[in-house]
Amino acid sequence: MASAAVFPSSGRMPSTFEPIVQKDLSAKGGSVAFNPEKHLAFTPPSKVHTMKDLKLEDIGVSPIAVSEPFPLFSTEAIHQMRAEIFNDKVWENCQYSSDLAQCQLRGFAPKYAILPVTHGLLTKCFS
């Protein structure tokens, strides 16, 4: 059985943890308001696989099983959202840990005015 590294039960990241995205992004460009024309870059997937395709016709709640990867956000939006979540206040106040998931960020988008792209995306596109 494969093993996975997990964060300590305290929920704090070990001091040896190095994020893929470095903190210098959080200062880059400041706050940016969400703009669907600028921040969304949806292109339909090249193929959508159905449950029938996978010989699992009578299983699940949707006829759609999986799709090929597809872009949803522009590169600028991705960089901005990463900068927003790597803000120290977000990690200090919104990090959540449980036995099931050792490191989650919860409730950060509506609480912090510094997160206009993420909050705008959640409220305008998925509500």
Which descriptors would you attach to this protein?
two-stranded antiparallel sheet; 28% helix; 127 residues; extended; alpha+beta
Give an overview of the whole structure:
This protein is an alpha+beta fold and 127 residues long. It has one domain (31-125). The protein is 28% helix and 9% strand. It has 5 helices and 4 strands; from the N terminus they run H-E-E-H-H-E-E-H-H. It has helices at 36-39, 75-85, 88-94, 108-111, 116-125; strands at 48-50, 64-67, 95-96, 104-105. Strands 1-2 form a two-stranded antiparallel sheet. The longest helix has 11 residues, at 75-85. The relative contact order is 0.20. The model has no long low-confidence stretch (mean pLDDT 76).
Q: What are the SSEs and their pairings?
A:
Blueprint: H1 36-39, E1 48-50, E2 64-67, H2 75-85, H3 88-94, E3 95-96, E4 104-105, H4 108-111, H5 116-125
Antiparallel strand pairs: 1-2, 3-4
Short overview:
With 127 residues, this protein is an alpha+beta fold. The protein has helices at 36-39, 75-85, 88-94, 108-111, 116-125, and strands at 48-50, 64-67, 95-96, 104-105. It has a two-stranded antiparallel sheet. Strands 3-4 form a two-stranded antiparallel sheet.
